[in-house]
Write a structure and sequence with these properties.
By secondary structure, the protein is an alpha+beta fold. It has seven helices and six strands, in the order αααααβαββαβββ. It has two domains: about 70 residues, no CATH class; about 150 residues, Nucleic acid-binding proteins (OB fold (Dihydrolipoamide Acetyltransferase, E2P)), CATH 2.40.50.140. It has a six-stranded antiparallel β-sheet with strand order 3-2-1-4-5-6, with helices on both faces. A hairpin with a 2-residue loop joins strand 4 and strand 5. The N and C termini lie far apart (about 95 Å).
Length: about 260
């Protein structure tokens, strides 16, 4: 039947006699469909195809390639999603105070006795705990003993760390270290990160420059905590005035 259709198309004297039209139609219409459309004209025996049908065939030939090209055109790729820029907050949440460099200028040099005289504690041992939060530095003598921080003093440390905005720091002050100023023995809460360096750098009787905090008063007595310390160089040991001695920075002296 396909051969008959081809012969009829070749014999047609109209503008559709070219075999290329039939060949192009086969690329988008099944052979059976072409035959079914052309057979009615062939059965009339005139050896020709009706003009309206050929016009319809031409319209389909013109429209179908355009529709096919539109349906097969590749979609343009979507631009990749751009991630938002990282936060530029200079103080991101969770930033710890110990990340800041240690500023020695905030610790004026004075004796323990002077620090207490400037902000005396109430003499009544039953007085309510007080928070002072005063920074200073003092030359003290290392005695080397350790003990657990007494409960009342530890509670004051917890109140102080909460007041300065770092309540998580309180557990680091569970130990106190012994020092002295003249004949006055002292117990100072010390951060756990400083215990081993102090034991490595100092022996009993050594003098050290202690950067301390006057935390406050509990049971009528002052409480001082260590922030940092420095040892003195050997050539300065014979100096009469400790204020003129040059403290040497301890390597790895982060108080955290």
């Amino acid at each position: 039947m396909s051969w008959q259709v081809s012969e009829n198309m070749k014999r047609h004297n109209g503008p559709f006699h070219s075999p290329s039209l039939l060949e192009s139609s086969r690329s988008w219409l099944p052979h059976g469909a072409i035959a079914a459309l052309l057979v009615p004209g062939c059965r009339r025996g005139a050896g020709r195809v009706e003009l309206p049908f050929l016009l319809a065939l031409l319209v389909l030939a013109l429209l179908c390639p355009a529709a096919s090209a539109k349906s097969t055109a590749p979609e343009k790729p979507k631009p990749p999603a751009v991630a938002p820029p990282p936060s530029q907050d200079p103080n991101p949440e969770g930033q710890k105070a110990e990340d800041e460099p240690f500023d020695r200028t905030q610790y004026p040099l004075m004796s323990i006795a002077k620090a207490v005289s400037m902000e005396p504690c109430p003499p009544n041992p039953k007085a309510k705990p007080l928070i002072k939060d005063r920074l200073f530095s003092a030359e003290l003598v290392y005695q080397g003993s350790l003990r657990d921080t007494p409960p009342a003093r530890y509670e004051l440390m917890k109140r102080w760390t909460k007041q300065i905005g770092d309540p998580d720091a309180a557990p680091r002050y569970k130990k106190e270290i012994s020092l002295s100023e003249g004949k006055r023995p002292l117990w100072l809460p010390v951060p756990e990160g400083l215990i081993e360096p102090m034991q490595a750098d100092l022996v009993v009787g050594d003098r050290a420059l202690i950067y301390a905090v006057f935390v406050g008063c509990v049971q009528g007595k002052p409480v001082f905590a260590i922030d940092e310390f420095e040892t003195f160089t050997p050539e300065d040991e014979e100096a009469d005035d400790y204020i003129t001695r040059r403290p040497s920075s301890r390597p790895g002296g982060d108080p955290s």
